[in-house]
Amino acid sequence: MLSLDEIRKRLKEYDGIPVSFMEVCGTHTGEIARNGIVSMLSPKIRLVSGPGCPVCVTVASYIDRLLKLSCRERTCVVSFGDLFRVKGSRLCLNDIRGRGGRAEMVYAPENIISLAEKEPETEFIFAAVGFETTAAVYADLMERLIAFKIRNIKLLTALKVMPPAIQWVCENGSGIDGFIAPGNVSVVTGSGIYRPLSERFGIPFAVAGFAGEELLIAVYGLLKNIGKPKVMNYYPYAVTEEGNRTAQKKIAAYFEPCAAAWRGLGMIADSGLKLKREYACFDAGSESLCEDAQYNPSCRCAEVLVGKISPTQCPLFGTVCQPQNPQGACMVSAEGSCHNWFVNRRKR
Questions:
Q1: pTM greater than 0.85 (yes/no)
Q2: N- to C-terminal Cα separation, the chain
Q3: Measured between alpha carbons, how far is 162 from 193 in angstroms, rounded to an integer?
Q4: DSSP string, 277-345
Q5: pLDDT (0 to 100) of residue 109
Q6: What is the pLDDT of residue 4?
Q7: Which pLDDT value is given to residue 248?
Q8: Where are the alpha helices (DSSP H) in 81-211?
Q9: Share of the chain residues as helix, strand and coil, in percent rounded to the nearest 5
Q10: What's the order of all strands across the beta sheet hosting 231-233?
Q11: 324: burial class by Cβ within 10 Å (0-12, 13-18, 19+)?
Q12: Residue 287 vs residues 173, 273, 329: alpha-carbon distances, Å
């Protein structure tokens, strides 16, 4: 087993064929930037941020539906904070709060229950955005809504699952030689979920934690296994091969696969989760939310999300588009590629 110093040395001195690795987790994107990992690598090793920020891949029509619901009488939209600044076709939730709409920010899905109990005459719509990790939390929320017979809470879902998006990236010419698999998603799904993709495309996957050292080890693991169908788990204290069976069963109890729209990728079959038909009374109209539109037509978020360009290649980056004045979703979220490149001065 090599020491961390030796791994650093080999990554910095690598002089083989140029390779591109994609991290598909927004938290990984943030940690790579904060730890300055790109500066520790050879110029022949390229790290690309992928479609792993749930807010960033949410299409404009979903935001527009939230805005419309927030303006409905006796209705309140509830969301996590980072979604408030993501613009739909024209406006965001922050805008609508000053125009008669009602939207409340929470820190956890269960916070909506206390709001609903205080105002039984108000319908609360939760903006259920996220991947497999948060899908388990929404399943738990559904369990509580049913158990306590709470009827004034509904979900507007934009839930996604990761493997179909990775498959899309592999099939659409992004030139990725290996993936740093998302540690948080893998806790739920297990590392085994990446094996079919690894074998089909002949590329390695490295499940990684979130410390800088863990990410460097994952990059080195990918480099050693270029062109090999191999899945490596560098996050064994949290991720197993089979994943969290309890969470998987809860998700399956309330949700079923569906086609989903991804910003920059379009519609992808079986890449989303929707409430099962028997729980349709808890759905706030999630079907057919697939239209996308850029608030600023010069924004190139769609290409950034799939690794076709880096954030600095967008003509708006760092000038018109900054964290305090985001023009696209990639600059809004703390997990977004553009936000992290700007805040942490990520290069290359």
A1: yes
A2: 30
A3: 10
A4: GGGGGGB-S-TT------SSTT--HHHHHTTSS-GGGSTTBTTTBBTTB-SSHHHHSTTSHHHHHHHTT
A5: 82
A6: 93
A7: 97
A8: 93-97, 111-118, 132-147, 162-171, 183-189, 195-201
A9: 40, 20, 40
A10: 45-49, 19-23, 178-181, 205-207, 231-233
A11: exposed
A12: 30, 11, 22
∠ CA 30-218-230, nearest 5°, is 130
The amino acid occupying position 331 is M
- The residues facing 258 across adjacent strands are 272
Q: Tell how far CA 290 is from the center of its chain.
A: 17
Tokens 């990761």 identify what position? 162
Q: Which amino acid appears at position 148 of this protein? A: F
Residues 226/177, Cβ–Cβ less than 8 Å: yes
Q: What local confidence, expressed as pLDDT, does residue 294 receive?
A: 64
pLDDT along the chain (348 residues), means of 10: 92 96 91 91 93 88 94 95 86 87 90 94 96 95 95 96 93 88 96 97 97 96 97 97 97 96 87 96 87 77 84 92 86 85 71
DSSP string over 101-112:
--EEE-SSTTHH
Distance CA(7)–CA(217), nearest Å, equals 7
pLDDT for residue 319: 92
Structure tokens at 158: 């934009």
Complete edge-to-edge strand list for the sheet that includes strand 266-275: 103-105, 75-79, 123-130, 153-160, 266-275, 255-262
**Widest CA span of the chain, in angstroms?**
66
Q: What is the pLDDT of residue 309?
A: 87
Phi, psi of 63 (to 5 degrees): -65, -40
Rounded Cα distance between 321 and 299, Å, is: 9
